[in-house]
TrEMBL record:
Classification via PANTHER family: 6-PHOSPHOGLUCONOLACTONASE, 6-PHOSPHOGLUCONOLACTONASE-RELATED
GO molecular function: 6-phosphogluconolactonase activity
Keywords: Carbohydrate metabolism, Glucose metabolism
Protein name (database record): 6-phosphogluconolactonase
Family listed: Belongs to the cycloisomerase 2 family.
Gene Ontology BP terms: glucose metabolic process
GO CC list: cytosol
């Protein structure tokens, strides 16, 4: 029988910002999917504002960015997680070549990539940077980086400059794909000869503000959460370009208040898509058809305020929501047949959670 125990990693603001409960840094807990109980394991508080982290389960390494707005250049740090001992050991860190670093990912070709939101001016001001990873998990010096100087979106209050918000490698390993909220673009780069070479660009709906995205497991479709417009865009990927198939709201009909889309994930079986929305404080649910298109099934209250991040457990049984402004991780059970969410169990109080990731080693 498979274990019901899941490891949960939480990144939080621990140096600046208001919170009911101060953030811890990187917190590690276990979550039992049978009892729905969280148990603290360890905390790494020797890192500044780890607002986004990525766990590489194959190597048991954790990579976390330090998002500190006043810094002209942020950092990305590496930790080794020892499951048996329940410890996080700091390995090293590197500069991110940009300000307000907000995303990190381990790529299929064994590199690390970061996205810099770039709030303010000054410093190296790169939108994306790529690093080699050593066999021990340490981060090498940057291999390549790129800045964005494209036409800006129409929302002067949010799109006054490039704001790269996430980066992932395409499933075929050919490109690094960067979502830029400020320029309304998804930009694809090839890593060639120590340089990031711009290959193609998808132009989003003006004012959409693409933030995060997820690839379907078949590699043919991309689902984009647009922060400003509070929409989800379905894109077809053919190995050389992205083509829009569909764009749907994340909100119920009649809701007109300005909201901010945040996170987006597919269920492990690829049948349902979920996206979180701040201000409306909800999780939108969609069914996924064989042709990649979506049907909006409705929204579920997030159980708190400002659901910046959420994670679906590898089994698909539960969805964990990090509500930033209510200092909580809220648990939802997930119906595998209908995709519906039901709040269950006790809410975990944890200071200023900005990122939650549930993994099985």
């Amino acid at each position: 029988m498979a274990s019901s125990l899941v490891h949960v990693f939480v990144g939080s603001i621990n140096r600046t910002g208001e919170a009911i409960t101060p953030g811890q840094g990187i917190a590690v807990l276990t979550f039992d999917e049978e009892t729905r109980v969280f148990t603290p394991v360890t905390v790494a508080d020797d890192i500044d504002n780890p607002t986004f982290l990525e766990v590489d389960t194959a190597s048991a390494r954790v990579y976390a960015v330090s998002e500190v707005v006043p810094w002209y250049e942020c950092t990305v740090s590496a930790y080794a997680f020892d499951r048996a001992a329940g410890t996080l050991t700091y390995l090293n860190k590197q500069p991110t070549l940009g300000r307000t670093t907000c995303h990190v990912t381990v790529t299929r070709d064994g590199h690390l990539a970061v996205a810099n939101y770039s709030e303010g001016t000054g410093g190296p001001d790169q939108a994306v940077a790529v690093y080699p990873l050593g066999e021990n998990g340490r981060i090498g010096t940057p291999l390549a980086s790129a800045a964005h100087f494209s036409t800006l979106g129409p929302r002067a209050d949010r799109q006054e400059r490039s704001h790269a918000h996430s980066v992932q490698q395409t499933p075929d390993g050919r490109y690094y794909l960067v979502a830029d909220l400020g320029t309304d673009e998804l930009v694809a780069y090839r890593l060639e000869g120590g340089e990031l070479v711009r290959s193609f660009v998808y132009d989003a709906t003006p004012g959409a503000g693409p933030r995060h995205f997820v690839f379907h497991s078949d590699g043919k479709f991309v689902y984009v959460a647009n922060e400003i417009a509070a929409t989800v865009t379905v894109l077809a990927y053919d190995g050389e370009s992205l083509t829009r198939l569909q764009e749907l709201s994340m909100l119920p009909e009649g809701f007109t208040e300005q909201t901010w889309a945040a996170d987006i994930h597919l269920s492990p079986d690829g049948r349902f898509l979920y996206a979180s929305n701040r201000v409306h404080d909800s999780i939108a649910t969609y069914s996924v058809a064989a042709d990649g298109t979506l049907a909006f099934l409705g929204t579920t209250p997030s159980g708190g305020r400002w659901p910046r991040s959420f994670s679906i457990t590898p089994s698909g049984r539960h969805l964990l929501v990090a509500n930033q402004h209510s200092d909580s991780i809220v648990v939802f059970s997930r119906d595998a047949e209908t995709g519906s969410l039901t709040q269950v169990g006790d809410t975990l109080t944890i200071g200023k959670p900005l990122r939650v990731q549930a993994v099985v080693f």
